[in-house]
Amino acid sequence: MTAPSRILIADDNLQNCELLDAYLTGEPYEIAMAHDGQQSLDMVAEFHPDLILLDIMMPKVSGYEVCKRLRADPATRDIPILMVTALNELGDIERAVQAGADDFLTKPVHRLELTTRVKSLLRVRHLTNQRDRLLAYLEEVDGEAVKSLGLK
Questions:
Q1: Closest by Cα among 72, 53, 76 to 63
Q2: Which end of the chain is less enclosed by CB atoms within 10 A, N or C?
Q3: Which of these, 129, 127, 111, lies nearest to 27 by C-alpha position?
Q4: 13 pLDDT band (50/70/90 cuts)?
Q5: ω into 80 cis (within 30 of 0)
Q6: Which CATH code, of 3.40.50.2300, 3.40.50.300, 3.20.20.140, 3.90.226.10, is assigned to 5-148?
């Protein structure tokens, strides 16, 4: 049995967090919440999410900045980020993509759209993890074969 996927919901509005959590209820997810940008960064380091639902307009550190910082760190750069925000101008979407967001949803969020995008991003995340584990295993096997043949 595989462990449930971990999702971090980062939004300064408690009602938005609760709504997103309710929409994801019934799925095999472990959910944590953060209520400002700095807490979001701290929770990523502590919780190790498989996916982040990130609001843009948050206190202390904006969602754009959170996204940029996560993308700049090799330990977090591959975590999918779904921006969830009330901002819906084309410039807002472009800025989110430039910051490193993988996808973008505008509020009010529709349950089916949210759950479909979450499943899709998690599928990509898990396939990437499987690929990375396989590549590491192949490197190990290749290294052992080279040693056993005395080629190094």
A1: 53
A2: N
A3: 111
A4: very high
A5: no
A6: 3.40.50.2300
